[in-house]
Each structure stands twice: as structure tokens, then as C-alpha cells.
Structure prediction request, 449 residues.
Amino acid sequence: MFKRPQGMTAFTLVWAGQLVSLLGTSMTQFALTIWSWKFVTEVHPVDDPATAMALVALFNMAPLIFFSPIAGALVDRWNRKLVMMVSDLAAGLATIAVFLLYSSGQLQIWHLYIAGAFTGLFQSFQWPAYSAAIATMIPKEHYTRADSMMGLNDSLSGIFAPMLAGLLLTFIGISGIMLLDIITFLVAIAALLAVVVPQPPVSETGAASRGSLRSESVYGFRYIFERKSLLGLQLVFFTGNLLATVAGTLFAPMILSRSGNDSVVLGTVQAALGAGGLIGGLVLTIRGGLKRQVHGVLMGWVIASLFGTVLLGLGQTLTVWIAAAFISSLFGPLINGSNQSIWQAKVPPDVQGKVFAARRMIAWLTIPVAQLIAGPLADRVFEPGLRAGGNLVPLFGGLVGVGPGVGMALITVICGLLAAVLCGSGYLFPVIRNAEDLLPDHDAAPSAG
Prediction:
């Protein structure tokens, strides 16, 4: 009789299925980005083509942010393996719909808005379900390794999907790439069908969290705010994410402005970002995490901010930009993997859906806030201030130079310095520094009778 894989073997099989699926999804996104730009600039030109394309991401992200608390509550109520399969299936159905519209010549840009919103709605279930499933599938000593493997998927897809899509577009076109994407969804679902994903035992915390859907949807926030150590870690990440996103929003225009709109330079620096994340993820996957995970979080932010973000802003040559981009992403897997491992070890698995969904909503709220901050700061304050004769030249011209893109470079430097100081200041607070000692592991707590 066939015995379904369990433990790390089962997780590795699910991880491989997700990698294949993510590659397919990323290739489709790349191909549809090319189609979208041509559509809004040539087929049906619009006054604001960049905005029209940005709306695709907005429609996808809005459900991810605002539906997450409800999704987290439902994840803890339902079978997590089934939730993971349904979220993969929904993404596949959206791709099938777009494929049929494209093949019949009826695809419009607004169809992608609807598909993005539909996919985002179901993706709001996916991350809390997968993250919570890890805690029941494998021993806690492998949490960091598993989390780094999940992060590795993003790096691998980010590096290889554009190259594969660019190559395949010549031979099989957009329709062929979407068909491949549909097949990859089936691979992900098949991997889930083949393994055992245990449901978590009911803990005292989990039993106490039960109630109406409304009360369970806000439970994750209450859980975090009632535990100072978790709240402190969340504030560290909120601060780091906010500042990193401000710098990240200006990354491409800064490099293009300072390199004379050289797309090859931008592509090379972006490749260094992907390579750093890939190598960082591989190292963490092979070696595992630090003995004290909190050092991976706090020191990781400090090093990535100082030697990555700050250096990226100070740099004026391709060599420096490559080095800075590589370092900034090299420590990403350590930061995220260490933080995720702490939460997985401390939060009872049967409430992780609710708690992790709340975490995600808090963290992702930084994205639109940072984007709203970055643009006006660059366009109205720092860029004019650091052009020839600008009011900021006497103060900062000697540090970052004068000219196009220099204002964005200074914002990047400031963000890096603030992130290093504010995230590193976590060491000053015992509730953050000693979080692993102050919070009991979930498997040390008794189960509900």
C-alpha cells in the first residue's frame, strides 16, 4: 500500500510543487505585462498607461491586505490542506479565464483587474495556510530551513521566469505560456494530494479564540498586542519594511536617472538583487538558522540596511550598485526566516492562521503608505533640492553629488540609516532582545482537554 510522505519529505514535495507553480505564474505575469503595455500604448492608447498597468497590481493587492483577517480566521476553522489546494485551484481558474479571453481575441485590460482581484482574494488564504501548515508538518528545528526554502522560491522564480518567458514567447507565444502555467497549477495540487498535512491539535489558546467570524477575524491583532515581545518584533518589521519599501520604490528610477536611462545597468543591478536572495536562501537552507533567531532578525536588518541600502544610495558606479544590491538581498532570507521561525515556534498552530494573517495585514499596509511617501518626497523636495543651485546642495551635495537621481539617492541613504538605527535599537528592549526566552514554545503549552 502506498504510504503518503510525511514530515520534511512531505514538505519538500509541496515546496517543489509550489516552485513549479510559481515559475509558471511568474512567466505568465511577465508575458501579460508585455501584452498590457502594448495594449494601453498601441492597441487602445490611454492617457496614463503606467497608471492603467499599476491598477493590475492594485486590484490584486487590495484583497490580500483587507481580506487577510477573515481569511486567517477561516484557515484555522477549515482543513489547511484543502485550503491550500483551493487557493491554487482558484489561481489556475483565473489563468484559464484569461487564456480563453486572449485566445478568442477578447481580452481587455479591465479583465486583468477582475482576474487580479479574484486571485488576490484566494491568495489571502494561501500564505497563512502554508505558513501554519509548516508548524504541523515538520519539527521546530527545521522551521528556519523550511521558511528559507519558501523564500527561495521567490528568488528562483524572479531570476529564471523572465528569462524562460522571454525565450518561450518566441516559440509558443503568450497562449503557450499560459497553458504551461495551467499545467504547473496541476503539479502543485498533485503534490498536495500526495502528502500528509496534519491538522493541529486544539490548544487552550485555540479553544479560547473560538467565537463568531467577526471576533475571530480580530483575534490575531489582539493576540499580537497582548504579547509585548511579538508586538516588538512586529514593530521592528513594520519599521524596516516601511523604510525598505520607500527605498525600493525609488530603486529603478534612481538607477536609471543616475546611469543615463541605461536599461542594461538596471537589469544588471536587478540580477544582483535576485542572486543575493538566491544565495542567501541556499545558505540558510543548507546550514539552517542561527541558534538565537532574534540575532538573525535584528543584526540582519542592520547589516542589510548599512551595507546594502545605504551603499546603494551612496554608489555612483555599476560595481558599487551591484555589490550593494547583492548584500541587501543576501540577508533577506536570514531576516525573514529567523522572524518566521520565532512566530511558528511561539504561536500555537491552531491559531496561526489568524495571527499570521494579522501580521501580514500590518506588514503589507506599509506598501501603499511607502509608495505615497516616496514619490512626493522625491519629486517635490529632494530631486529639486539636489539639482544645480538647489537648496540641499550645500548640505548633502558633497555626500551624494548633484544632478538627476541624486535626490532619490539621498532618500535611499536616509532610509538605510534610519532602518539600521531603529531596527538595531531592538537590542535596547529586553522584550525584543529576549523574545525567545520570554515567550514559551507552543509545544510546551498543554492541549485543551
Remarks:
- Residues 236 and 425 are 9 Å apart (CA to CA).
